Amino acid sequence: AAAERLNESVEADHVDLLYQIARIHALQGRKNEALAWLKRAADAGVIDRFRLRADEAFAGLKDDERFRAL
């Protein structure tokens, strides 16, 4: 419920939050949620692919095809 409210509240002017929300989900082991937020961040053009691959918060996602496709 709280995640749904958060999802709805992220405005276009706060696109940098998309990456940070993905990071929080990844750190909490919520792989699918992290990947969904990363896709939103990529679609909004706020993904720095070098930073993404170097960010240890996403270490658990690096073997996932969806992560590699970002």
List the helices and strands and how they pair.
Blueprint: H1 2-9, H2 16-27, H3 31-43, H4 49-54, H5 65-68
What does it look like?
- The chain is mostly helical and 70 residues long.
- The chain is 61% helix and 0% strand.
- The chain contains 5 helices and no strands.
- It has helices at residues 2-9, 16-27, 31-43, 49-54, 65-68.
- The longest helix is centred in the middle third of the chain and has 13 residues, at 31-43.
- The N and C termini lie far apart (27 Å).
The N- to C-terminal Cα distance equals 27 Å
How many H/I helices? 5
* Helix-residue proportion: 55-70%
Measured by DSSP, the beta-strand proportion falls in under 5%
Shape: globular
Mean pLDDT, to the nearest integer, reads 85
Q: Major β-sheet, in short?
A: none
- Rg over CA atoms: 11 Å
Task: Quickly give the structural class.
Answer: mainly alpha
H and E order:
HHHHH
The quaternary organization reads as single chain
Q: Indicate the low-confidence ranges by residue numbers.
A: none
**What is the total tally of β strands?**
0
